[in-house]
Amino acid sequence: MADQTGEEPDDAARPRLLTTGELAKALGLRPRTIQKYRAEGLITPAEESIGGHARWVEADVRDQMRELRERRKRERDSE
């Protein structure tokens, strides 16, 4: 798809979208764990297919999970 300048976007500039299974393997988790975190609103996919399948950017999910760990640590420390 062409951008506003009429040029095709550089594929190298776009992060690779992973399926839930691919993401789980990259993170060393089970796909069900990823699905559970998504259902609980703890992580969100970069995109969702028309059929409702999540597509993930690994770096984004790693950032989301790091933020989640930090938030949980702060909550434990404040108790």
Question: What do you see in this structure?
Answer:
- By secondary structure, the protein is mainly alpha-helical.
- Helices cover 48% and strands 5% of the residues.
- It has 3 helices and 2 strands; from the N terminus they run ααββα.
- Strands 1-2 form a two-stranded antiparallel sheet.
- The longest helix has 21 residues, at 58-78.
- It is globular, with a radius of gyration of 16 Å.
- The chain starts with 19 loop residues before the first helix and ends with a helix.
- The model has no long low-confidence stretch (mean pLDDT 89).
Termini separation comes to 51 Å
The averaged pLDDT comes out at: 89
> What's the alpha carbon Rg, rounded to whole Å?
16 Å
Large-scale geometry: globular
Structural class: mainly alpha
Strand count, sense and barrel status of the largest sheet are: 2 strands, antiparallel
What's the arrangement of secondary structure elements?
Elements: H1 20-27, H2 31-39, E1 47-48, E2 54-55, H3 58-78
Antiparallel strand pairs: 1-2
Name some characteristics of this structure.
single chain, 79 residues, mainly alpha, two-stranded antiparallel ribbon, 3 helices, 2 strands, 5% strand
In short:
This protein has 79 residues and is mainly alpha-helical. Helices cover 48% and strands 5% of the residues.
